[in-house]
Amino acid sequence: MNELKIFSPATVANVSCGFDALGFALEHIGDEMVFRLSNTPGIRITKIEGANLSFDINENVVGVVAQAMLNRDYAHLGVDIEIYKNFKPGSGLGSSAASASGTAYALNELLERPFSMLEMTKFAMLGEEAACGSQIADNVSAALFGGFILVRSYDPLDIVKLPVPDQLYATVIHPQIEIKTKDARDVLNEHVSLKDATTQWANVGGLVSGLHSNNYDLISSSLQDVIVEPLRKQLIPHFDAVKTAAVHNGALGAGISGSGPTIFALSKGIDTAKKVAEAMDIVYKNTGIDYEIHVSKINTEGIKILDQK
Ligand code: HSE
Questions:
Q1: pLDDT, tens digit, 9 for 90 and up, residues 254-269
Q2: Ligand 1, from 95, 140, 181: best to mutate by most atoms within 8 Å of Cβ?
């Protein structure tokens, strides 16, 4: 095999209480990429559709990740890459992570799987660093591992795959404005109070326990963020109205997806998730801001191979 076409999913990071530590993958929304391995050394991004991104391999996260991988014993090989972006950078849905993790996954396949999941995650984190200045693991590991993940430790890196209750659905509204992750990180405080930290880690424990025990009430009561959301929500137009509408229409909870501006809600069952989508639509339709709304089951598979030659 020397050619691979993949789908790399959009992801929701943080999931309210788990800043930089929790994430899950979505179905249907994501990037498609084509990778062709060759004996001509070098990395060439030959096509980018759907976003105005750099073809420079030192700037595009795809190039950064591919270089790091080929520099590990494969510098005699080359790769040609086509990128088809189906959602915008700066969305809060892990756009750079979809590209970075998709590259790590596809190159590993083409090189006949020399790298472990953790190694692929680390390569993808280099892409995140190129995109926003920090080696964040939540989006890239959600895309690579699929389902719901916990980044239990960054040093050493430890990713825990969590179970996904059968009836768990996400609704996401993506206002078509761009928030750079770096800017959304700059508004955060370096220090938090012991009281807020206690609330936050108790909720992470509650959410993880709720996922393990299919306890939707516990998932619901744990979807609280007292540290990050209060500082970031002012970057997102109509955040409170969307969140209130989602919860009033049956969502288990709602919050900022990653660094925003996308707002996510989790619901028990597709009917409720669709009702939440309608409620979000009502809030946004007269705002003058373009937006997209998606309802998705949690994608337990992660990155998918679409074609191989
Ligand atoms: N956990 C990261 C943040 C995700 O919230 O800044 C960035 O997409």
A1: 999 999 999 999 999 9
A2: 181
Q: Full-prediction pTM beyond 0.70?
A: yes
User: Contacts for 107-112 with beta carbons within 8 Å, 24 or more apart?
Assistant: 107/35, 107/65, 107/66, 107/69, 107/70, 107/79, 108/69, 109/1, 109/4, 109/305, 109/308, 110/1, 110/2, 110/4, 110/35, 110/37, 110/79, 111/37, 111/69, 111/74, 111/77
Pocket lining for ligand 1, CB < 6 angstroms: 13-14, 19-20, 94, 136, 138-139, 181, 184-185, 258-259
State pLDDT tens for residues 37-70.
999 999 999 999 999 999 999 999 999 999 999 9
Relative to the CA of 14, which ligand 1 atom is closest? 1
Q: Are 298 and 170 in contact (CB under 8 A)?
A: yes
Measured between alpha carbons, how far is residue 171 from residues 150, 271, 278 in Å?
20, 11, 10
Give the CA distances from residue 119 to residues 108, 127, 148, 307, in Å, rounded to whole numbers and listed in that order.
10, 13, 19, 24
Closest C-alpha to 218, from 288, 152, 266, 279: 266
